[in-house]
Amino acid sequence: MLIIPLLISSCGAAVVALATLYWFYPSILYSCYKRFGGYLLAGLHRKQLTVNGITYAYFERLPVALVKDAPAVLFLHGFTADKTMWMLTIRNLPKEWWIIVLDLPGHGDTSFVQNGDYSPTGMVTKLHEVIEAINIHHVHLIGTSLGALYAMVYASKHPSKVATLSLLCPPVAHKLPDGVRTEFFESLESSGTNLLLPTTVEGFHRMIDTVLHQSNKFKFHRRLSEVLLDERMQKYESFKEIQQDLIKDTDNASSRAVETVEGLMMNTLLVWGEHDKICHPSGAALLHKLIKNSEVVMIKNCGHTIALEKPRETANIIANFLSRNCPTQASDCKDD
Prior knowledge:
Radius of gyration: 20 Å
Strand order of the largest sheet: 1-2-4-3-5-6-7-8
Number of helices: 13
Oligomer: single chain
């Protein structure tokens, strides 16, 4: 009979401890989340490898029985984000999948080399080196935002490697004929001002309000916001260098965008938030017309950061797409 009171007491103590950490020691709570959240929430294990002077950090979740030459499901995050953004989505995906979640160079726990090539072509070269180093024969490539752009370029350069392609709001449609530029890209391309590089808590909150449609669900008290901003500021110079390489690469981006998109022949999933303020939602229809074997899913009441705002729905959409287009065995994948 004493068990129930003890359980209640233990749970109450845990809640008090978490509340204390949140309000008074948010840096400790956030550090624990970054370090242990992947495993506790989604069964992901922390890994790292070094390729050509860059030490890459990534999460991996192996199925109980990994079929030889089965494709990996590889997740790529967006600009200034990191691998932890996918944790809540991945916890809802089938346990039978071999999952890799990568921190891109200069992001998360992956190292950064100054004066490297961080254009999409340069990043894709680095991505291919990692895929080869992990010994991935085929890959279901899933990217969001800038990670989706890298996924597109990778698929166009290494089509035999890519089993399927899933693109969440890729920042490419505004470079296409009839593409719509949002205020975000107008500001970025005219003055270099990037809302994703805040330097104040107020700027951090403006960023949250822009990338999320229902940002009220993600309001942080000031001390936690300061912790999150401080982490981003530690990578500010590397983010700026990556941004500069991206801006330089826009000179001939329009013609390359059409060529890249039209060259994609693998089964492709396009997912967009209906209230995306970064990449205009009309881009979904434009890309759908150009990509031969594509399908579109629009998510209601959702902004740009789909995997954070609608993690369960994102997982269901991805799982449905992969189950229809490419079972676990690489040899069973549809080859168009």
